Amino acid sequence: MTSRSNGEPLVRLSGVNKWFGDLHVLQDIDLDIARGEVVVVIGPSGSGKSTLCRAINRLEPIEKGEITIDGDRLPDEGKQLARLRADVGMVFQSFNLFAHKTILENVTLGPIKVRKQSKADAEKRARELLDRVGVSAQADKYPAQLSGGQQQRVAIARALAMEPKVMLFDEPTSALDPEMINEVLDVMVGLAGDGMTMVVVTHEMGFARRAANRVVFMDGGRIVETAEPEAFFTNPQSDRAKDFLSKILTH
Predict the structure, then answer these.
(1) Which runs of consecutive H residues, i.e. helices, occur in the chain?
(2) Does 24 score more than 90 pLDDT?
(3) Which helix (H) or strand (E) holds 206?
(4) Could you give the CA distance from residue 205 to residue 184 in angstroms, rounded to a whole number?
(5) Residue 4 has pLDDT above 60, yes or no
(6) pLDDT single digits (tens) 184-216
(7) Which of 15, 21, 46, 87 could form a disulfide with 65 if both were Cys (CB 3.0 to 4.6 A apart)?
(8) Separation between Cα atoms, residue 190 and residue 202, nearest integer Å
(9) CA 216 to CA 17: how far, in whole Å?
(10) Which domain range does residue 71 map to?
(11) DSSP-derived 3-state class of residue 125
């Protein structure tokens, strides 16, 4: 995959606005994400975090503004959108694995169909990725035979198999039992360490502290504050962020 000059951001949101009916869920969002940067998006429920994440690969269309990936404007629809979307990996709250396909088949489907890889090449790479996320022994099983934490790690491997330029995570641990959360976060920390560009919507503040280059705090559809994790958690600048942190960090 060719990447453009390293000078420009890999992902750029300029003046992005989104409405659901009368509800203005994204308000004049400007955000640049550099190559290899890990940006964690936090904020109260209903602040627009997930919508922001989903707008980056146009799962949510925007009404106003522009989003570019590696210098290319996100098209509205059609083959160009499919091609650009293939550069953007996405991991959701729910694992969205195909129940009737094995774990190996789930991971190889995209590379074979979209990237036109041979079955042998796709399977070799899939096994490497399943090993990397710690579920190589599960390759021939079906999703229902795996724990939630294992399924989510398969979903990460499936996204990585497309060799995306950027990975989006929309609350990837919120549907998991507490003891499974760390096994997924550990994989994500490893990815961050490998230099993967990531946008992560999460309530896991420990992950934000460990792996983020930057924390983006949203409230009411706006970016209220953006800072390095240590600065944000120890010395938030806005009253809204102070209030939010006082509620979540005391529990």
Answers:
(1) 49-55, 78-85, 103-113, 119-132, 148-161, 178-193, 205-211, 229-234, 239-248
(2) yes
(3) helix 205-211
(4) 14
(5) no
(6) 999 999 999 999 999 999 999 999 999 999 999
(7) 15
(8) 17
(9) 17
(10) 11-247
(11) helix
State how many domains the chain has: 1
CATH of the domain at 72: 3.40.50.300
Q: Convert the pLDDT of each residue in 153-178 to its tens digit.
A: 999 999 999 999 999 999 999 999 98
Pairing of strands 222-227, 214-219: antiparallel
102 lies in a domain? yes
Give CA–CA dist 215/122, Å, rounded. Answer: 35
Token pair listed for 53 = 């994440």
**Mean pLDDT score, 119-148:** 96
Q: Dihedral sign for Cα 175, 191, 215, 75, please.
A: negative
Burial 204-218 (b: 16+ CB within 10 A, else e): bbebbebbbebbbbb
Look up residue 154 and give its amino acid: V
Distance CA 21, CA 87 (A): 30
- Return the higher-pLDDT residue of 8 and 168: 168
Task: Indicate the pairing of strand 64-69 with strand 72-73.
Answer: antiparallel
pLDDT reported for residue 151: 96
| Alpha carbon distance 121, 119 (integer Å) | 6
CA-based nearest residue to 244, from 63, 46, 24, 27: 46
